[in-house]
């Protein structure tokens, strides 16, 4: 994917899989599905409880990765990795609202935000500056197969 394509794809609505180095019990990454917020050219934001394993590991590592994908053909994915450049404690309510609307729609977001209002006291917002990008777009491959079988 071109830079513009991958940034536009990442800005789309996908559940991300966050990865962070986990040195506990022999190492390997901790992988967790998350909601996220991203605007092309900006930072990528996630929110989590300040006392969660995920938050502790991201703070200790000072960086994390996120991978998003299309789950239907033609398959596409974008993976980003970079440093944590900002931690807002407690969580930024505007980011929380933006993510709720992004993933649930305006009407359902209002109910979700009301039901989870107390989480704002326990959650933090972490912002990552994407530095390393990986992407794949199998659209042309799918088109070649379709043409070959037509």
UniProtKB/TrEMBL annotation:
<dbReference type="Pfam" id="PF12900">
    <property type="entry name" value="Pyridox_ox_2"/>
</dbReference>
<protein>
    <recommendedName>
        <fullName>Pyridoxamine 5'-phosphate oxidase</fullName>
    </recommendedName>
</protein>
<dbReference type="InterPro" id="IPR024747">
    <property type="entry name" value="Pyridox_Oxase-rel"/>
</dbReference>
<dbReference type="InterPro" id="IPR012349">
    <property type="entry name" value="Split_barrel_FMN-bd"/>
</dbReference>
């Amino acid at each position: 994917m071109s830079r513009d394509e991958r940034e536009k794809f990442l800005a789309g609505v996908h559940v991300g899989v966050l990865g962070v180095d986990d040195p506990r019990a022999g190492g390997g990454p901790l992988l967790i599905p998350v909601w996220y917020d991203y605007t092309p050219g900006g930072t990528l934001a996630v929110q989590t409880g300040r006392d969660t394993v995920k938050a502790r590991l991201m703070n200790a590592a000072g960086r994390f990765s996120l991978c998003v994908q299309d789950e239907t053909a033609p398959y596409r994915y974008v993976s980003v990795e970079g440093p944590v450049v900002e931690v807002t404690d407690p969580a930024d309510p505007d980011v929380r609202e933006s993510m709720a609307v992004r993933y649930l729609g305006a009407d359902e977001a209002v109910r979700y935000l009301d039901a989870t209002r107390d989480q704002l006291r326990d959650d933090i917002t972490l912002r990552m500056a994407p530095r390393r990008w990986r992407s794949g777009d199998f659209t042309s491959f799918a088109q070649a197969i379709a043409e070959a079988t037509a």
